Amino acid sequence: MAELFRWSREFNVGIAPIDEQHVELVGLLNRLHAAVREQRGVEAVRDALDELVACTLNHFADEERLMSQARYPAYAEHRIHHEALTAQVRALQRRLESGETTISFELLDFLRVWLMRHIGESDRRFGEWYHREGAGRAGESPWWCFWK
């Protein structure tokens, strides 16, 4: 089976839970690609896309929570990237549901490129910053939480 996106350790950002989620997202993207390539039908494609979207939304929430806790300076910009992709994918889901469109290989390539660039650039910058400056902040308790 030809993978759309072959994961390699080069994509690791050095934050284990984030890296694990990235691996899962890549696997789900490859599953979606296989459903389209093997012409498994609309239901199989929709199910694969829905699972990819749900996992992506959970990942974005976890990543943003960590960024917020660590007070990542580029958090707002990073969140805008997440929101833009989320809006595009939700629109695609609506169009698929209405029968207005199908998932094309061009769309799959767009998702692959977006994910590769986002992990390789934006998430990597966060990982580097996190290990340099933010890891301690993410574990700090608020000033008013003195009993921890």
From TrEMBL:
Keyword check for Lyase: no
Q: Which UniProt keywords apply?
A: Coiled coil, Iron, Metal-binding, Oxygen transport, Transport
User: What PROSITE patterns has UniProt attached to this entry?
Assistant: HEMERYTHRINS
InterPro entries to which the protein is assigned, alphabetical: Haemerythrin_Fe_BS (IPR016131), Hemerythrin (IPR050669), Hemerythrin-like (IPR012312), Hemerythrin-like_sf (IPR035938), Hemerythrin_metal-bd (IPR012827)
Carries keyword Transcription?
A: no
Q: Where is the Hemerythrin-like domain?
A: 14-127
**Its domain of life?**
Bacteria
Q: Which GO terms of the molecular function aspect are on file?
A: metal ion binding; oxygen carrier activity
* Pfam families associated with the record: Hemerythrin (PF01814)
Q: Which residues form a coiled coil?
A: 75-102
Q: Cross-referenced NCBIfam families, in alphabetical order? A: bact_hemeryth, hemeryth_dom
The record's comment on protein family reads:
Belongs to the hemerythrin family.
> In its UniProt entry, what is this protein called?
Bacteriohemerythrin
Q: Which organism is it from?
A: Pseudothauera nasutitermitis
Query: Source organism lineage?
Result: Bacteria, Pseudomonadati, Pseudomonadota, Betaproteobacteria, Rhodocyclales
